[in-house]
Amino acid sequence: MLERKVRRAVITAAGFGTRFLPATKNLPKEMLPILDTPIIHYVAAECVEAGIEEIIVVIRPGNEAVMNYFTPSKQLESYLIEAGKEKHLQTYYEVADRAHFVFVHQNPRFPYGNGSPILSVKHLIDDEPFVVCWGDDLVLNPGGPGGVKQVVDYYVERGGAYGVLATTKVPREEVVRYGMVDLMNGGEEGQIKRIVEKPKIEDVTSELVEFGRMVLSQEIFEYLNETNTGKDGELWLMDSIHQLLSKRPLYAKTIQGEFLTTGDPLRFLKASVKFAMQRDDLASDFKEFLKEEIK
Question: For the whole prediction, is pTM greater than 0.90?
Answer without folding.
Answer: yes
